[in-house]
Amino acid sequence: MMLDPAQLAALAAVHRRGSFELAAAELHVTPSAVSQRIKALEEKAGALLIRRGQPCRATEAGLRLIRHHDEIALLEQTLAEDLPGLSAGPATLRIAVNADSLATWVLPALAATPGFLFDLVIDDQDVSQEWLRRGEVVAAITAHPGPLQGCDTIPLGALRYRATASPAFMARWFPDGVATETLTRAPALTFSDNDRLQTLWAAARGLDPPVLPTHRMASSQAFVTACLLGMAWSMNPEPLVAPHLASGALVELVPGTALDVALYWQFTRLAAPALAPLTQAVRRAAAEMLV
Fold first, then answer.
1. In the chain, how many domains are there?
2. Model confidence at 83, in pLDDT bands (50, 70, 90)?
3. How far apart are alpha carbons 11 and 20 in whole angstroms?
4. Residue whose C-alpha is closest to residue 237's, from 157, 167, 162
5. Residue 93: its pLDDT value, please?
6. Final residue of a structural domain among 58, 88, 118
7. Residue 170 CB: number of other CB atoms within 10 A?
8. What CATH number is given to the structural domain containing 24?
9. How many Å apart are CA 98 and CA 94, to the nearest integer?
């Protein structure tokens, strides 16, 4: 059974944009055309592929077809390198990246890899592998080494974090040093519900606060700025705070207590040939920044 590329593209667009109208705008067709394509694909597959709602989301069967669509697009991109007449423009590459890697070392790797349009899913390194497992991305930077069926994994090194705050914050909240009791009162920063770095760092110090009072900010740069302004303490990537530590604008809560988070580049085997230039660029950029 041959699958219609236009129908697969419509399925992927509705799932990723969340509505038939936004998918139609992306594909330069009418919402009615998108609906007809998905209906025809569902009839061919004999299964519900999109759950209509706000937003629309693909079913498990739909996600399998979206993954197939992405892998075929990348294979065609590789073929177009040998047969330029087949090229229809740059392929869109959807990958899952944690925000701290994006803020510190990933962008140079993307910039060094022309020929793609990048669609980045920003999520914590502890859960980014799930995007790959579900078939929503073709590659991910993750804290999980695998194994994951149908995927290859390359170790990249570790991103080093420092528990940092401003001197004024330290004087206010930790005048006698960091302890479980003071951590239960001092405001921290949390990226999302999946962010466990602050808790992991405290546990490694033998501290076990039942609750960390926290601001929630989904931005690596905002973490650093908030610390500089004395709003909170947080686990910040060393590359982002090294200049501030050197100048004294930030200090470590406990000197010399880094937390290293191992990272891996994980990708589907079918997409490996097309991803080879990006894989090389990711490894180079990681070697320059990670420990």
1. 2
2. low
3. 9
4. 162
5. 87
6. 88
7. 20
8. 1.10.10.10
9. 13
Task: Pull the structure tokens for residue 12.
Answer: 């992927």
Is residue 208 assigned to a domain? yes
Task: Say how far apart CA 121 and CA 131 lie, in whole Å.
Answer: 9
Class of residue 160 by CB neighbours under 10 A (exposed 0-12, middle 13-18, buried 19+): middle
> pLDDT tens for residues 21-46?
999 999 999 999 999 999 999 998 89
**What average pLDDT does the segment 79-90 reach?**
64
Q: Which of 111, 120, 103 is nearest to 217 (CA)?
A: 103
- Contact in structure between 102 and 219 (CB atoms under 8 Å): no
Residue 213 belongs to a domain = yes
Look up the domain containing 9 and give its range.
1-88
Distance CA 68, CA 72 (A): 6
Confidence of residue 178 (pLDDT cuts 50, 70, 90): very high
Is 22 part of any domain?
Answer: yes
Looking up residue 229, the CATH number of its domain turns out to be 3.40.190.10
Residue 162 has pLDDT above 90, yes or no: yes
